[in-house]
Amino acid sequence: MKHLSKIQDPIYIGYFKIPPEYYQDKIRYFERNKKKFDLLPEEAFFSLNLDYVRSLYKVKEYSQFLHYVDKLIEQLIVGEQMISEWKEIYTELLYKKAVAHYFNLDYEKAEQVLAQLLKIKVKPAYEKLYTRSVRDRMRMKSQSARGLVIMLLLMSGIVIAAELLVVRNLIVEQVWWVEIIRNVLFIAAISVFVGLEAFIYLKSQKALKAATHKS
């Protein structure tokens, strides 16, 4: 973007006079002057859009970010010869797109974008978010199993309450089998929870292995 310093448009210059960390101010300025920005040269228009979507990402306006980022990526690919650092910007935007999908709870789209990134280059940040997304997606789909864990724990709590309030005071000779029921319920709840988490972990590692083409 070597020619940007030659642009003298006051609206364009005004945007970049806003302090870098004043993200909300930059967002408001951009949206207020968007029609004027559309008339700028392509490279200047791209630099403004890039800074705008970065600002949206910084303030966690993920839905708005996703609304703009695909158009920016398309513009970046078309103008790759014009933008020397296009590969770095491309992977940056893809990663931020994956993060935005993740925090919008759209795990499958996040994983699709991360799979693209992992084919370009394997990085710990990509792997970490990919496995995290797979696990959270599977946890969301396994609510019935989690409901079973909660139900077993509640039943165990009810048995403990009955043991303390009734059995130990009135029918002491029956304490032993009440303790067995309480322990069985508690162990069953823990077993289901641990088994589910182990299954989810193994599935996430298998998915990561497939995404990175590791044998």
Written description of the protein model:
- The chain has 215 residues and is mostly helical.
- It has helices at 10-17, 23-32, 34-37, 42-58, 62-78, 86-103, 107-120, 124-141, 143-170, 175-212.
- Helix 9 (143-170) packs antiparallel against helix 10 (175-212).
The unreliable regions are 1-5
Number of helices: 10
Distance between the termini: 41 Å
* Cα-atom radius of gyration: 27 Å
Domains, number:
2
Relative helix content: over 70%
The gross shape turns out to be elongated
Number of E strands = 0
**SS-based class:** mainly alpha
Q: What does the secondary structure layout of this molecule look like, with pairings?
A:
Blueprint: H1 10-17, H2 23-32, H3 34-37, H4 42-58, H5 62-78, H6 86-103, H7 107-120, H8 124-141, H9 143-170, H10 175-212
Helix pairs in contact: 2-4, 4-5, 5-6, 6-7, 7-8, 8-10, 9-10
Task: Please name the defining characteristics of this protein.
mainly alpha, elongated, 2 domains
Short description:
The protein is mostly helical. It is 80% helix and 0% strand.
